[in-house]
Design brief:
The protein is an alpha+beta fold. The protein has helices spanning 6-24, 29-36, 40-52, 118-136, 178-182, 195-206, 267-270, 272-280, 292-303, 308-332, 341-362, 382-397; strands spanning 27-28, 56-62, 70-75, 81-87, 91-98, 103-110, 145-150, 153-156, 164-168, 173-176, 190-194, 214-220, 224-230, 242-244, 336-340, 372-375, 435-436.
């Protein structure tokens, strides 16, 4: 048993109330008392602290039952800002957000070579952080944190305590110490995690997943992945989204070869490159005018309105995605599946009817109709926004206490420069389980 101190209890109470406000939105002190289970005196004391520190504000009033109107509390967006970094197979996107995750500004840097070396990607990320903070007039040292989403796994180095390694086959990375590369140029707390996990968290907080109980976020780009997360109870804590290697579930025995070495994987059929290859290999297809994978998939989607070959291609892709989602429904029983990622967002509106119909055919009879399938609503900044949830989740977990940055670039620990030991951010609302770099 670990004995909890008075300081632990105060931090816990702050976290409960701040998280409830963050997830549920503006509300009264009375409602905070009901959803938190804390005494009215404790709520009053904590709210006074949060108001004094500038994390929350009073924003209007609501009618009460026969009494005076109650003041409504809300999160102050201008308390601070965070950066989310989306490292994809085709681009690096850097987003600057206020801490309620509204976009302030963003920059996109195309990557022509999908096997670009990690040092070059790290340099691009640092350039992007500098560019967006300069454009917004934000001092990088004042950031609440920087979150980085990567298309792969972030795992501890078994040889060096506290060191995190990125394994991203779509980028040609195996055991890359990306945090160490970034940390000397980042003045704020730095966190790394898989982009499907972080995207799932963003969808549950600010996207179509709000209010859902079990959410699968299906991320489709050049690669394909997914994350399963739970909604929040009372607006405070929930299960951290867990990654699912959905793209490497086999949907066609002995089918097309996949980058993982297997055959017939879902990714081999619905990854962006596979979609373009299918179209270009079909009799009657037309040459693309756009350059690059993203531009060509957008062009293909636009063509579907008038080009029967393009429409036929996307309908078949929708069928494959629907089969994959039918498998997810049978295995995980989610009440919501969100079709997301840059490719999912681009073609989602066109393929959604086919996806829904196919998933229903392949789901077990007693599960049919229990799962909604929707296209994500967070736009092109979705993955970067997801990465930005990492430092926000940690801030909520600590009750709004800003982490201290250790000086120097050598052997700092915890939330220091990123070159020393790594601490796990405990769960905030919906997640928060990234790794401090």
């Amino acid at each position: 048993m670990v004995k909890r101190t008075t300081s632990d209890l105060r931090r816990h109470n702050r976290s409960i109330l701040l998280s409830a406000l963050y997830v549920q939105g503006p509300t009264s002190r009375n409602r905070l008392t009901r959803v938190s289970g804390l005494s009215s005196a404790t709520v009053s004391n904590v709210v006074s602290q949060l108001l004094a520190e500038g994390l929350i504000a009073e924003g209007g009033s609501e009618d009460s039952d026969g009494g005076r109107p109650r003041s409504v509390l809300e999160i102050r967006p201008d308390y601070g800002s965070v950066i989310g970094v989306d490292i994809g197979e085709t681009h690096v996107r850097i987003g600057l957000f206020d801490w309620t995750l509204s976009v302030i500004t963003s920059e996109v840097y195309p990557i022509a070579d999908t096997r670009l070396d990690a040092e070059s990607v790290a340099a691009l990320v640092l350039q992007g952080i500098s560019d967006v903070t300069r454009a917004a007039g934000v001092d990088p040292a004042d950031l609440l944190g920087v979150g980085v989403g990567v298309p792969g796994a972030v795992q501890p180095d078994p040889r060096i305590a506290g060191r995190m390694l990125v394994h991203a086959p779509t980028l040609g990375w195996s055991g890359v110490a990306l945090g160490e590369m970034l940390a000397p140029g980042v003045a704020a707390p730095l966190m790394l995690d898989n982009c499907a996990r972080t995207l799932g968290q963003a969808e549950m907080w600010r996207g179509v997943g709000q209010g859902a109980d079990r959410v699968v976020t299906a991320l489709i780009g050049v690669g394909v992945g997914a994350a399963l997360g739970s909604g929040t109870e009372g607006g405070t804590t929930g299960l951290a989204p867990a990654t699912i290697e959905w793209g490497h579930t086999v949907i066609y025995a002995g089918g097309l070869p996949c980058r993982c070495g297997s055959r017939g994987c879902l990714e081999a059929y619905v990854g962006a490159d596979a979609i373009l290859h299918r179209y270009q290999s079909t009799l009657g297809s037309q040459p693309f005018h756009a350059a690059g994978t993203e531009g060509r998939l957008a062009e293909l989607t636009a063509r579907a309105a008038t080009d029967p070959v393009a429409m036929e291609t996307l309908e078949k892709i929708g069928e494959y995605i629907g089969i994959g989602i039918g498998n997810l429904i049978n295995l995980l029983h989610p009440d919501l599946v969100v079709l997301s990622g840059w490719a999912g967002s681009v073609m989602g509106g066109v393929v959604l009817p086919t996806v829904r119909a196919t998933a229903e055919r392949h789901a077990l009879s007693y599960l049919r109709g229990r799962t909604r399938i929707e296209v994500g609503r967070l736009g092109q900044e979705a993955v970067a926004m997801g990465a930005a949830t990492l430092p926000v989740a940690h801030l909520l977990t600590t009750g709004g206490r800003r982490p201290e940055i250790m000086s120097g670039s050598g052997s700092g620990s915890g939330m220091g420069s990123g070159m020393g030991s790594v601490s796990r951010a405990v769960s905030g609302p919906g997640s928060g389980a990234g790794a401090w770099a």
